[in-house]
Design brief:
Mean pLDDT: 85
Helix content: over 70%
Shape: flat
Radius of gyration: 20 Å
Low-confidence stretches: none
Distance between the termini: 66 Å
Oligomer: single chain
Largest sheet: none
């Protein structure tokens, strides 16, 4: 590297391409793990199924596959109605979808996801009250 950082662009472009390759490998590994977890889901119910679905939802969320993550977390809550990290992540995903709807000026989407967030908050409050 020279006095004024000449050659720095080469290094950063090399890093960017290696980061893109690593991201692609990570995504492939995550998709393989999701397929494996879906296989493990067969025959499980209740808390066991919810734990697997939470793991699937987290992997989808990490890949920014919001719709798939929401679906997995909603199925998890159907199996096990306990609020926790999965429900908190679900609220964040609903808010992300609501923000996207607001940006797209989609009033119906905004109302839908706002209602979903409010539903989750109501469930949380009811559990705190012991209902």
């Amino acid at each position: 590297m020279g006095l004024f950082g000449f050659g720095k662009k080469k290094e950063s472009s090399t890093k960017a391409s290696s980061n893109a390759e690593a991201t692609a490998l990570d995504k492939d590994a995550a998709l393989a793990k999701i397929a494996e977890l879906k296989g493990q889901l067969e025959g499980k119910e209740g808390v066991a199924a919810a734990n697997v679905l939470n793991e699937i939802g987290k992997l989808y969320a990490d890949m920014d596959c919001v719709d798939e993550a929401i679906e997995a977390f909603e199925q998890s809550l159907e199996q096990n109605h306990v609020m926790g990290k999965a429900s908190a992540t679900l609220v964040k995903l609903y808010n992300k979808k609501r923000a996207a709807a607001a940006e797209a000026k989609d009033d119906e989407g905004i109302k839908y996801y706002l209602a979903k967030v409010n539903e989750m908050l109501a469930i949380s409050k009811n559990q705190l009250r012991g209902m």
